[in-house]
Specification:
This protein is mainly beta. It has one helix at 49-52; strands at residues 2-10, 14-17, 23-33, 40-46, 60-72, 75-88. The protein starts with a strand and ends in an 18-residue tail after the last strand. 8% of the residues are buried.
Amino acid sequence: MEIKGKIIQVLPPQGGISKSGNEWCKQEYVLETLDSYPKKVKFDFFGDRVDQYPLAIGDIATISYDIESREFNGRWYTDIHAYKADVHDSASAFSPAPAPDDTPLY
């Protein structure tokens, strides 16, 4: 799935060592959609993708992601894991299409 919008917050990076002894890292971002009624969406990049797709506040981007839910102690938690980010030129990425030309074609 994909979502488009503007990066409005970059959260502190997280990391540690897994139970199996492997090092891990995660970077979370908050994106605001550019719809009439904007929505805020928190998503993360995990592992090697943290360095592969660095984003900054103000970037206009299309994020490709997967949604995953899990149960813990009778409560459900949902995560949005991004796997790709395409950063756009903010001036042209979401500008409306030009109005049709009313000039006759003949």
